């Protein structure tokens, strides 16, 4: 027998269908940018690279987390983060302004569970940069936190099967700014989190302890991690790692001179149909590898950083306002916008 | 390694629509870059011919110096085909002496790679190009070889490899990259999505070249406070540290004039000041840097060069609506 309450809920559902991403113009991606007048905003991007929506942000954004079903995005400030705004991308309404607990700072990234009932935010303790994941329920109430097992965590990524990967960048920063405090002793790591506990930790050879593990992508059981070199300038090191659970990581490089052009810096990483790519805004190039780490080629583009999979290859954005599609290493412009795209593209 | 900044559009100050016409990009290509890459290819060819005729250092040195002079005319360009080619043509600074160490190993084992120009392209970048040749021609630990020695053949191979690279570089500029710059903003052009982007790319090279002269050509030898490092001066064994710097600044001045479509007084004055301070440098190899008075003179020259960078940013960059790259500078 149907209860009155369930009956009413059913009626409501018919009368007012749940909002979905279609209500926000069905964007495929989200990205933050600085606009021509110096203001900051979050944009929705359609499959052809066109804007679907624009929502103003109070300051420079970094990355975001998109709710799997509801047209809601969490826009994170660049670290150390003062804000994480939960935005209704259909109406433009500010649903929630998340604040980390006293003494904690957002670090620019976060992720929802597959069901969208929990949001995790990557955070660090201001005093010592110890890493945490803040846990928020579906009404964006803080319900707890867990440690990431490292210093200065940066990106986290939801994995198929329910777990998450977290990049512990290893860099302790000044509580008030981004001054790096511990470079000689930095010890980055990559961790897998399952049921709110660390299930596996991956570290690199001590000779590479200056390689800050910062960004993540995943496909077919392989986790790709992108690194930024904090060691002596001029030392040419791998910037991409590939890891499968329980195995040793594989490090991937382009041939010598080409690798040197990345300037020791990878800003984003993405997987697309068996290819993995990293971008270097400092080197002005994108590097593609196969899933076993063999170098496939370089694609130049000034100040390129934003990177996401798209059919046939990768979508990229850059500080010059360009939106490009890179297929088989060949770039094609989709548009040039009067704005400087920020570091990341979030795929819906 | 060179850490140059990518320059982006300074969106807040000047909308892209107000940037000047493409004439300046054409001028930079036609009066500066393409004549420069052709001259370098020719000089590298002459160097190969010279070494083939007589491989001994005293015979090869004049042609090597001419090739170095030609490289200084374009060495600041690190885009397009030259981005990677610059590493294998002109690997400097080499703070870990990789070039000397690799050459020593190749010679010690009489590695067959050193006897064939095509194979030689596989050796590490530090052991190829102009700077590795300086080691062979001027470093007493290497330059004592005889006309029929392994090293003699190695030097010939190194000059063949360099001539090949220089010819490829000139060809790649002409066939591919110059057209990309000229056709900025056309629908299929994924390198330069607008004319402003092409101008920005050239300005980045100009500014980066000036920074390189201050930070590397002088910064390396000046070292850290109280610890100058004479052995880090560029090509000090051939005594041409100051000549490289001077020729490079002259080339950058010509490029600035082409890019700005004429003289810009503030920029000209800054370049003139550099020339004036350079005249006061006594040791052309900067080996007197350990003398406090000489150190001050080199530091003053470095300061003048930095002021050229500032003048370029203010008088040309800002007028073109250009500021350092958004993501390249921020990091994360």
Automatic annotation (TrEMBL), chain B:
Residues 1-23 form the signal peptide. CDD domains: Imelysin-like_IPPA. The keyword Hydrolase does not apply. Keywords: Signal. One of its GO terms (cellular component) is cell envelope. Transmembrane segments: none annotated. It holds the Pfam family Peptidase_M75. It is found in: Cell envelope. Residues 34-306 form the Imelysin-like domain. This is Signal peptidase. It comes from Pararhodobacter marinus.
């Amino acid at each position: 027998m149907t209860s009155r309450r369930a009956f009413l809920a059913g009626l409501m559902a018919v009368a007012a269908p749940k909002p979905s991403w279609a209500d926000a113009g069905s964007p495929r991606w989200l990205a933050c940018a600085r606009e021509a007048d110096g203001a900051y905003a979050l944009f929705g991007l359609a499959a052809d690279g066109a804007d679907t929506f624009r929502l103003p942000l109070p300051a420079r954004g970094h990355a975001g987390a998109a709710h799997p079903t509801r047209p809601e995005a969490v826009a994170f400030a660049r670290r150390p983060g003062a804000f994480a705004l939960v935005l209704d991308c259909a109406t433009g309404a500010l649903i929630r302004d998340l604040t980390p607990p006293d003494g904690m700072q957002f670090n620019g990234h976060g992720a929802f569970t597959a069901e969208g009932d929990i949001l995790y935010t990557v955070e660090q303790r201001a005093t010592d940069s110890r890493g945490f994941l803040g846990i928020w329920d579906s009404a964006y109430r803080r319900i707890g936190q867990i440690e990431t097992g490292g210093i200065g965590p940066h990106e986290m990524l939801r994995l198929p099967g329910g777990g998450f990967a977290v990049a512990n960048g290893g860099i302790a920063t000044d509580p008030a700014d981004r001054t790096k405090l511990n470079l000689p002793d930095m010890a980055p790591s990559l961790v897998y989190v399952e049921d709110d506990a660390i299930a596996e930790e991956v570290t690199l050879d001590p000779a590479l302890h200056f390689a800050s593990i910062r960004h993540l992508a995943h496909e077919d059981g392989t986790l790709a991690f992108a690194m930024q070199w904090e060691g002596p300038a001029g030392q040419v090191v791998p910037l991409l790692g590939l890891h499968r659970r329980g195995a040793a990581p594989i490090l991937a490089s382009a041939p010598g001179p080409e690798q040197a052009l990345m300037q020791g810096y990878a800003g984003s990483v993405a997987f697309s149909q068996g290819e993995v790519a990293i971008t270097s805004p400092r080197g002005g190039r994108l590097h593609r590898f196969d899933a076993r780490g063999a170098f496939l080629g370089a694609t130049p583009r000034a100040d390129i950083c934003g990177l996401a999979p798209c059919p046939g290859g990768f979508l990229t954005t850059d500080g010059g306002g360009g939106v490009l599609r890179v297929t088989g290493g060949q770039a094609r412009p989709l548009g040039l916008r009067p704005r400087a795209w920020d570091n990341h593209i979030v795929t819906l | 390694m060179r850490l140059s900044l990518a320059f982006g559009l300074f969106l807040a100050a000047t909308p892209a629509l107000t940037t000047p016409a493409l004439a300046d990009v054409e001028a930079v290509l036609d009066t500066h870059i393409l004549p420069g890459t052709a001259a370098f290819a020719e000089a590298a060819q002459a160097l190969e011919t010279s070494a083939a005729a007589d491989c001994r250092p005293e015979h090869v040195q004049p042609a090597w110096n001419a090739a170095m002079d030609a490289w200084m005319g374009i060495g600041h360009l690190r885009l397009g085909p030259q981005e990677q080619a610059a590493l294998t043509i002109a690997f400097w600074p080499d703070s870990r002496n990789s070039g000397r160490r690799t050459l020593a190993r190749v010679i010690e084992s009489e590695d067959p790679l050193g006897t064939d120009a095509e194979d030689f392209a596989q050796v590490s970048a530090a052991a190829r190009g102009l700077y590795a040749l300086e080691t062979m021609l001027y470093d007493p630990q290497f330059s004592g070889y005889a006309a029929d020695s392994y090293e003699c053949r190695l030097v010939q191979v190194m000059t063949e490899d360099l001539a090949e690279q220089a010819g490829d570089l000139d060809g790649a500029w002409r066939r591919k990259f110059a057209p990309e710059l000229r056709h900025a903003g056309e629908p299929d052009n994924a390198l330069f999505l607008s004319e402003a982007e092409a101008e920005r790319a050239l300005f980045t090279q100009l500014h980066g070249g000036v920074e390189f002269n201050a930070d590397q050509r002088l910064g390396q030898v000046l070292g850290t406070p109280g610890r100058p490092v004479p052995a880090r001066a560029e090509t000090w064994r051939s005594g041409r540290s100051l000549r490289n710097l001077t020729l490079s600044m002259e080339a950058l001045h010509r490029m600035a004039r082409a890019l700005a479509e004429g003289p810009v007084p503030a920029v000209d004055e800054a370049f003139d000041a550099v020339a004036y301070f350079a005249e006061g440098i006594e040791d052309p190899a900067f080996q007197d840097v350990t003398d406090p008075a000489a150190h001050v003179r080199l530091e003053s020259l470095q300061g003048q060069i930095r002021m050229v960078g500032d003048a370029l940013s203010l008088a040309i960059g800002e007028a073109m609506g250009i500021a350092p790259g958004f993501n390249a500078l921020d990091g994360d």
